[in-house]
Every structure is written in structure tokens, then in C-alpha cells.
């Protein structure tokens, strides 16, 4: 039985991270009008840090931060300055993960009306007081050193970029990080990982099947779970988000098992987004181009964000200015913001081209939103 079921009146007294968990529903992680969203980001940005251990899995350094009241957050450190563009000679799978990409992805996902990325907030941390003195993890503690410039640095243990050549350094102690709200424990809310049909080859030489076959979507449409329900248009939503922020690293996605196949896709792990503003990556839009399907709600939101009064770059600039790290410098440079407008126009052009060839492009989803809660025991599978 859920805490919510036992005493709904007590819910106001729960810490923000627990209220976030209780608010997860079949179709979104949070409701955009929920006042707890602001309370949760404030909690992540200001709560006293009790512990820091390295999070296993993944290829780059990330830490699990503990707060009072059993709260936790996933930390990604600043690795490169905001205005550094990803080297054109780097493959997408060799790119650094960026803390400001995680923050910006949360804001973009929310502005698109998806609400499928756990809340992320920026924070200025003291590497010595908040990590070195709090960690019980030897993988972290034994890698601390003072750089020739007198900055406190560490590198942890991971597959890529965990070495003295790629340290995370304070200035001399202060470090910008992103902190993402943690999802409910897998023992309480198991998740299923799905390989994306439009996954890249992750090879320097091979092409994926979808890159060779323009009719690739025909076979996807006939394969469960894409053959019914909203899964295909959910995947296309994710492709639109990824194209706008130029994230090529979407090899898998996850869903909550409790909701079966009729549920939203979690847009997790966005650190490789916003790497390059000077060029776009049209192949990210392959699901939209090849399938020619899009939700009506998504298309209406994209058209709104293309209007001068609601321009995507303007609403993103305004939204990101609320983040605590915006005081130091804008989280996205003007070049990245204008790239969002350019890419939005490209998405709308693809939809227009689709509509010239097909009559069934728009998936009408505006009569559907039943709010099944993740914590409701009576949820239909």
C-alpha cells in the first residue's frame, strides 16, 4: 500500500523528492502546474549534502549525492566551459557529458510539454567540503589531488575520461554541477529498458539498418510495441527533442513496468546534448522523416514555439535564467539558443513535407489523458 493511500492529508509534510515520486503518472513524470516542482528544484539546489559516492554504470563520472530526509540526486560535474563546441572530428560516442546540457534538456523537455525528464538543477558546490570531506567511496577519495594551478581536482573511476589527464577541478574549490532528481527505487517501481529501433551503430565504420533502408519504418510499424498504441509517436516526440538539442546518443529508453506498453518514455541521460550549435544533425529526425507520424499536441506546441511572441529561443532563455547557475553565466550561449529556432523550423518543414505525401500524419491524442498514478494499486496493467 502506498503512503498516499494511507494518509493523503500527510502528503504536504513529505519531503519534495517523495512528493515527486508520488506524483508520477501513466503519461508524465510531473504535472507542469504542480507547485512541488519548484520546491523540488529548490531542495536540490540548497539542501545540505550528507554524502557523495560514485554511481556505477555509464561511461563517465557521475556521483550519487545524499541529502537529509533520505533525498538523493545524480550529480554530473562541469567538464568544459559553456561555449566550447564539440570537436567536429569526435564521434558522438566519444563526446564529453555536459552539466549544462542536463539542465537545459530538462527545461526544453518541459517547454515542449513532454514532462518526461526528471527535474534537474544547477548548483555551485565546494569540491572539498561537499565531496572530499563527505565521501566514503575510495574510488572517489583516492583520486583527489591539487593541480599545478592550486585547484582541488579528482577523477574517480569510469570507462572514459576518469584519469589525471581529464580531472574535474574546482576553482580552487568551487565547481559547477547539475543535480537531477532520482527516480523511485527499482525495487518499488521497476523500469524496462528498450533498445531504440533507430539506435546508431556505435561503430566508426558500420551503418545501422535504418541508415541504409529508407523504408525501415514499415517494418518498425509492424513490430510490437510500435504496432499499436502511442509508442511510435512517443518515440517520434523523443526524436524531435533530440534533434532540437542535437543529442545523437539515444541508444535506449526506459518505461515504468507498472504501466505496461501504454505509457510515456523516460528521456534520461542527456549530457551529450547541446554539443554543437553551428551545425545540425538531420539523421536524428529519421523516425519522423521515415514514419511521417506526429502527435497533434506536439505539433501544436512546436507551431506555437515558432511564433514571434513565443519563440523557442526566448522562452528557453527566460526559463534557464531561473536556474541558480545562470547568475554565473547563461546556461546556453546565444548561438545554442538561435540553433533551437533554426532546428524547430527544420522539424516543421519535415512535417510539412510529410503532409504533402500522406494523409495520416497527425496522431490525434488530445482526447486521451487519463491520470493513472504510479502509486495507485488499482492501476490497470
Automatic annotation (TrEMBL):
Mn(2+) binds at residues 97, 269. Its cofactor is Mn(2+). The active site is at 249. One of its GO terms (molecular function) is ATP binding. It comes from the Eukaryota. PANTHER family: DENTIN MATRIX PROTEIN 4 PROTEIN FAM20 (PTHR12450), FAM20 C-TERMINAL DOMAIN-CONTAINING PROTEIN (PTHR12450:SF25). This is FAM20 C-terminal domain-containing protein. It comes from Amphiprion ocellaris.
